[in-house]
Amino acid sequence: MEHILAFGHKNPDTDSICSAIAYAHLKNLLGETTVPYRLGELSKESKFVLETFDFPIPLLLKTVSAQISDLTRVEKKVINQKDSLKIALDVLTTENFSSLPVMDDKKHLKGMIYISDIANTYLNLDHEDLFKKHYGTYENLKSVLEGDTISGIYPKGRINGTLRAVSELDKVIKGDIVVTTSMVDAIDRSIEAGAAVIIVCCEKKDFISPRIGQDCAILRVNFPLFKVTRLINQSISIGSIMRKSDFYSFKTDDFLHEIKDLMKESEQSNFPIVDLKGEVYGTIRSKNLINFTRKKIALLDHNEKSQSVSGIEDAKIIQVVDHHKFGNFETNEPLSICAEIVGSTCTLVYNLYKEANIVPDKNIAGILLSAILSDTLLFKSPTCTLKDQLVAKDLAQIAEIKNIEEYGMEMLIAGTSLEDMSIIDILKIDLKEFNMNGIEVAISQLNTVDINGVMNRQAEIEKVIIDEINANGHDLFLLVITDIVNSGSQIIALGDNISLIENAFKVKIENNSAWLKGVVSRKKQIVPFLMAATQNIDD
Fold first, then answer.
1. Which has the closest alpha carbon to 429: 52, 40, 60?
2. Boundary of a domain, candidates 394, 416, 438
3. Residue 177's beta-bridge partner residues?
4. Could you say which of 196, 220, 235 is where a domain stops?
């Protein structure tokens, strides 16, 4: 059954992770199979919350790009390496294919058969050494000739004898296959010579029963001698002439954007597909890449593609639940949007529970509450609304948390520990990128109870920030170190547009740093002011 993928933004915070989990839980209760994912590594705070309320860490989602398994049409015709050339020709001509994948009895890919290879084989066949050069079975021989066993026990398995025409009776030895007409003398001589099978070409009414040989099977076929000779050539097995290399094959989890150029440039027209078990799944052609089933996704705590998963253009967004501004957001189809000016996406997710008349269980309520406390900094952030506070009160009651502030502080402190963290990990705990009027700005926010401890590592931090600027082309990189107790932020800023910060916040940047009193919200107190400052540049 096709499921919905629910996830928050890149470099996920607690609100992003918890909203995806709670949203997926609700959808599953409503009968819509939904799986929560994450787009990056979890913060210590998020890990603390999931451990507290007994939730596993969501699976990492790297892309939602269309895969071969999403294609709406895959050709399912394949053949076995034991099948005869006749079977292959029938399938190729009926389906209008120029090639087909060849598999073994375990459905594993063994090679490719091309109609040109079959044609070239026919041109070079010599009936005398037909079964010496090529693998053939008695079963295929009988099937191709549509023969009836008149006497004797028809053999099974691989043919090892030589094919002899009626004009070569003097050469017949034990185990050979003789093709003749209903001439009794030719049949008797072949039996005496020890032929394994005698193929008699005649209609049933013309057949004269010869003396019976114990070790010789007589196969009557209803075709003239000349046609029988040609049909016998078609009895050799595909495995004898198939290509075992020099062709492209793909797996069902390969991405379409990665294979389409290769398919266009290749002279190969059909491409075998193998599933995750190693079994042949079918074949595709370039034209099959046009139509595929789009993965259904729900975006939590974000809406901009730059903050979302790779390959989102191939997916079908069914719902957005977010409390941020909408920017560069465009879809090809209608969708459901749940957006409101609140401090946390989890406040909105709780409203979805209420709309469905479902009371979240204790653990779901716990992660919803945790996310609200995280995103509103214990209700101290200017993004916090009365609705966030009322919802938090309801959730605390369901989660059986008696002291919200005490739990919230425990969570925030657990999440601000920087022990054993590298500088790059610190910068990417909560990093978002913005294009502000053509200026590329990266803003990383870190909540802590120990600003001095972070600032003691300023030299290390600045070195890594410079590396990030050079690697990613940022015009400005801003690290916001937010004091969750004293409601303010120390910033470290580097880049070519430092003046933007001075103009936006009316501060003087000294030693690449400044204190922003009362500033704790990136969304409401930093981004809008920087955006305004970039616009003033044009003015």
1. 40
2. 416
3. 163, 197
4. 235
